[in-house]
């Protein structure tokens, strides 16, 4: 390997360790780690760690990836004007989705406003001076958000559980309710968040008299540092009400959970599915769906409409900034059987779901 490439690889590995909570200066392995869950064992919790329904091992190690990276192109900054302010509410029976950035979407369902994995911060990192930096502004200005009733968090990684944004939301909307997987409440409350509810898979809670939120399985992992690996639960979510079923996949690899949701709730009216940070697939396939797998997930869900997310904001994998969308379109064009409907929304674009 050329010296310049080796140096870049070593710096990347060092950066990853910094992101996970240690430094060459000797910060202990507990740095940045979150409290872990303590509770009864289950089919996905062994008393110390959570497990996926379908445990799988990557075909490439983290270090093999870092030493042999082939990165797709990303711009340093893509400036764009914000989208228009979303409506304050939608009517009973209506569904509207607005793509904001990364895994942040605004789901407006039956008069209830829900934000998914909100992040308005410049970096998704435990520190403000290092770590993945956004390459474009959020598609909706924070000040243009409608009243937010609930925030749903898929897991505790920095690009999905952004504490500065969550505190900002609580200040702006004091009655907002925050939902996360088992074990995350202690960490969130330690950061000053109130009205936090943690959910196990298949556990449900009422958001409104006619609208319920259900935690559903996903294929991923959790940690904020080096000593809390899989100590809190990762999850996807279903919103169910007079409008039907809306599904937010969170961060996930492909698995049987999509078929389970369809079997449990029936066909999905709207599915919000990740498509980015999927390369190299030999490392990422166990935790992130590829665009092709997102198409299959939409079929599994029998989704009327699917909206992709988790791309184009933070450079987290080896796929290029535009590659997930390009590959999604290819996957749809080359599919020989059922072609599910995908809306690739612009950043800040919102649409009413028929």
Summarize the structure.
This protein is an alpha/beta fold and 354 residues long.
Describe this structure in words.
This protein has 354 residues and is α/β, with parallel strands linked by helices. The protein has one domain (95-352): Metallo-beta-lactamase, Chain A (4-Layer Sandwich). Helix content is 21%, strand content 18%. The chain is built from eight helices and 13 strands. Strand 7 and strand 8 form a beta hairpin. The longest helix is centred in the N-terminal third of the chain and has 18 residues, at 3-20.
Features:
354 residues, Metallo-beta-lactamase, Chain A, 7-stranded mixed beta sheet, 8 helices, 13 strands, globular
């Amino acid at each position: 390997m050329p010296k310049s490439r080796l140096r870049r690889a070593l710096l990347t590995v060092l950066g990853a360790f910094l992101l996970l909570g240690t430094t060459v200066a000797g910060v202990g392995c507990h740095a940045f780690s979150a409290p872990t869950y303590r509770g009864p064992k289950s089919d996905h919790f062994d008393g110390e760690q959570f497990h996926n329904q379908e445990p799988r091992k990557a075909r490439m190690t983290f270090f093999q990836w870092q030493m042999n990276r082939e990165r797709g192109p990303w711009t340093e900054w893509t400036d764009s004007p914000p989208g228009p302010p979303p409506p304050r509410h939608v009517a009973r029976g209506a569904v509207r989705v607005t793509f904001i950035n990364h895994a942040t979407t605004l789901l407006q369902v039956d008069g209830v406003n829900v934000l998914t994995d909100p992040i308005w911060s410049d970096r998704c990192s435990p520190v403000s001076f290092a770590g993945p930096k956004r390459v474009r502004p959020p598609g909706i200005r924070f000040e243009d958000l409608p009243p937010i009733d609930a925030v749903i968090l898929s897991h505790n990684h920095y690009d999905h559980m952004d504490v500065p944004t969550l505190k900002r939301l609580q200040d702006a909307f004091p009655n907002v309710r925050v939902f996360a997987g088992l074990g995350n409440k202690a960490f969130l409350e330690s950061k000053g968040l109130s009205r936090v509810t943690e959910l196990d898979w298949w556990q449900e809670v009422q958001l409104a008299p006619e609208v319920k939120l259900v935690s559903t399985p996903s294929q991923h992992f959790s940690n904020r540092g080096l000593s809390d690996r899989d100590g809190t639960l990762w999850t996807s979510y279903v919103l169910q009400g007079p409008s039907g079923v809306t599904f937010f996949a969170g961060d996930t690899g492909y698995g049987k959970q999509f078929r389970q949701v369809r079997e449990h709730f029936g066909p999905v009216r709207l599915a919000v599915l990740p498509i980015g940070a999927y390369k190299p697939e030999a490392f990422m396939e166990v935790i992130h769906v590829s665009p092709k797998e997102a198409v299959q997930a939409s079929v599994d869900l029998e989704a009327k409409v699917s909206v992709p997310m988790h791309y184009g904001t933070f450079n987290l994998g080896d796929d290029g900034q535009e590659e997930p969308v390009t590959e999604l379109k290819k996957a749809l064009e080359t599919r020989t059987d059922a072609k599910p409907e995908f809306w690739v929304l612009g950043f800040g674009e919102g649409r009413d779901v028929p």
